[in-house]
Each structure stands twice: as C-alpha cells, then as structure tokens.
Design goal:
With 382 residues, this protein is α/β, with parallel strands linked by helices. The protein has 15 helices and 18 strands. β2 and β3 form a beta hairpin.
Length: 382
C-alpha cells in the first residue's frame, strides 16, 4: 500500500555507527534526515517569525494538537485553511497528538478506555479527547504528519503501568488509523514501554505490523514509527542503551522519530543509534533563560564574565545574532528582560540545532560521522 510520506535511506549503517542518511518526501516538501524540528506549540515558535525559521533553514516544524484545539480551535483553523496557510509556513508541519499532555497535565486529566478527560488548563472547563477527536483536530490543523493519541507514562513506572499504557496506546492506534480520512496527512505510531527493552520491542512489532481498514474501506498502516515516553523523568544516560537495542528493529523503510529529546549530546547519540527525526523545546526554552549552545559548549550568557565581551556567542556561527551582536549586548538585553534579547538568543540556539543536523548529514555523506560525534562529545564535556 502507498504511504502518505515516502522515506528513502540514502546511506545506511557502517562498521562504527547505526546512523543513516535519508530523505522524506512529503506533499509539502522534502525533508533531509537526520533532522531537528523546532517546536511551535501554539502555532508559533516562541521568539521566531516564519521569516526567521526560513532564514535558519528549518525544513519542518511542530504544532501541538491539545493547545491548538483550545486556542484558536478547529473552526478558526478550518476557516483559515489550516495552520500552515494561517502562519505563512509553506514547508512540512508535524503535530503531536495531545498524548504528551496526558503526561504533562496529569493533575487535571483522567484516562479512560475511550480517551482522556481533561480540565481546560485555562478555564477549568471539561474537555474530552478520544483518538478520533485527536485525528479530527490534526486534520483541521492540516498537518503533514499526524501522531496517534497515546498514553505517555512518567518514569520511573511499574511494569504494570507500562503494560497498561501499551495496551491503551495499541487500542487507540487502531482507532486513529481507522478514523483518518483518505485525503489527510501521514500518521505515525508511537512506541511506549519506558526503559523495558522487551516491552518496547513487543509494542514496536505490533505497531509496525498493524493494518486497519479506514472509514472508506482502504487498508491503512503507519507511515512512520516514533519512540515516545523518553525524557519523562529518567536520567538521559539510561535512554542510550535502550535506544541501541530498539532502533535496529525499527522498519528501515519508514522514518524513525524520537519524541521530545533533547540536548545536542542526546541528538548525536540518538542519530548514532539510527534515528531520523527529533524535536525538543530545549533550544527555545533555554534561550529565553540565557543558556546558549555553541560549537565549544554551553555559554551561560548572564554571567558577569560576559559584561564587556565584544565577541559573538559562537565565533564560527553564521546566525543573524552572531553576525551582528556581541555577548555583551545580548547579555544586557536578556538581563533587562527585553524581548529583543530573547529573540536573539532563540535565533542563535535554533540555528545551532538546525546547523548541527546539517553537519551530521554532511559527515554521514562523507563517512566521517563516527569521528565527528566523538570529537563533539569530547569538546562539549563539562
């Protein structure tokens, strides 16, 4: 059966790494992988205009189903022609299903077999999200890539809790596949299982083989497979060996997405394991707090040592901020709470992440990724 997005593995694993170079062909443009996707929860990447995202050469961004459901709502999204048209973004768009809010809003939600009962985090009004409603919202958004509704348990979790999350996520996966309309976007399944490799592998096999008839009687399968339930309370170092054991079993002919992770070190190690797609709020959130990433390591720009520093955040960086402003100025603007300071630091951090993935792809193409990764990890060690 033809998938909504097509993945081509251009260069596969070698003796020293499971990393792979690829290309995802979507109706809204091609995505070179490995790729980092800036997070635009409410239809805007904080501190960035669409022009800024184009200038840093982002090839795909994220929106959040739960938050866009509340504001502006499906009616506005539909009348405006979907989020991409509304925000002037012509490239691909991926949306989370609302599953992360099952984790992050655990104090105001209740999980049932049918779906999730939330309290609106703004008004307190009752809300109900089912797998079918999640797909309906994502179709109103006009997502290039949609995600299934899943249960994301916090870690550490008991085996029973992990098994229950897998059971519900599997049932909801089938309902998402069935609910998707023929003309809507691609749909990825989400593997759960915490740090339990056997549970992860079992859930992976089930989702990768899943085929469900949709409402038009057409057979549907997932266009890509994601790993959820990481960076939810565990030490990142606990994640790496789990990825090394799971990722080689993920389908080679579909994109592999690691959700919500993480630091530049996390990205390099996850690429090394064989993953293709990544997102995280870390570069934007850290930027607003003054923690900046550079080729030489972390720069905590609010420190006194930068008060009179005339050099850019990263001398080798080609971003707008580094080409035009000093550490001294950026520190001043940020310490004064000026919006400009947050904009400049966000531009830099996202440019760093997008550029890091470009370097990763270049080294994969040239066969030097193994050495590049080790050199970066050594240089970034604090």
């Amino acid at each position: 059966m033809k998938r909504r997005v097509q993945f081509e593995q251009i260069k596969g694993p070698t003796e020293h790494t499971n990393a792979r170079l690829g290309l995802i062909d979507t109706p809204h443009g091609k995505i070179e992988t490995p790729v980092f996707m800036p997070v635009g929860t409410l239809g805007t990447v904080k501190g960035m205009t669409t022009r800024d995202l184009q200038e840093i050469d982002a090839s795909i961004i994220l929106g959040n189903t739960y938050h866009l459901w509340i504001r502006p709502g499906m009616e506005v999204l539909r009348t405006q022609g979907g989020l991409r048209k509304w925000m002037g973004w012509k490239k691909p768009l991926l949306t989370d299903s609302g599953g992360f809010q099952v984790f992050s809003l655990s104090s105001i939600r209740k999980i049932t077999e049918d779906g999730v009962n939330f309290k609106n985090h703004l008004s307190g009004a009752p809300l109900f999200m089912s797998p079918e409603i999640s797909i309906e919202i994502q179709e109103a958004i006009g997502s290039t890539i949609m995600m299934q509704l899943d249960v994301c348990p916090a870690l550490p979790a008991t085996t029973d809790d992990l098994k229950d999350a897998i059971r519900l996520s599997t049932a909801w996966a089938k309902r998402c596949l069935k609910a998707r309309k023929t003309e809507s976007g691609a749909l990825f399944g989400i593997v759960q299982g915490g740090l339990d490799v056997n549970l992860r592998l079992g859930h992976l096999r089930e989702l990768a083989a899943m085929q469900v008839e949709d409402l038009d009687g057409k057979l549907n399968e997932f266009d890509g497979i994601a790993l959820g339930g990481f960076s939810v309370g565990e030490d990142p170092k606990e994640m790496y060996p789990v990825l090394d054991q799971i990722v080689p079993h993920m389908p080679e002919d579909r994109p592999r997405y690691l959700m919500g992770v993480g630091t530049p070190t996390d990205l390099l190690n996850a690429v090394n394991a064989g993953l293709d797609m990544f997102d995280c709020v870390m570069p934007t959130r850290n930027a607003r707090n003054g923690t900046l990433f550079s080729t030489q390591g972390i720069v905590r720009i609010k420190k006194q040592q930068y008060e009179n520093d005339p050099t850019p955040i990263d001398p080798g960086c080609a971003c707008y901020t580094c080409q035009n402003y000093s550490k001294s100025y950026v520190r001043h603007a940020l310490r004064c709470g000026e919006i400009t300071g947050m904009v400049l630091t966000t531009i830099h951090n996202l440019h760093f992440y997008v550029s890091l993935m470009k370097e990763v792809r270049r080294h994969l193409a040239e066969g030097s990724f193994h050495e590049f990764r080790l050199a970066c990890l050594d240089r970034w060690r604090e």
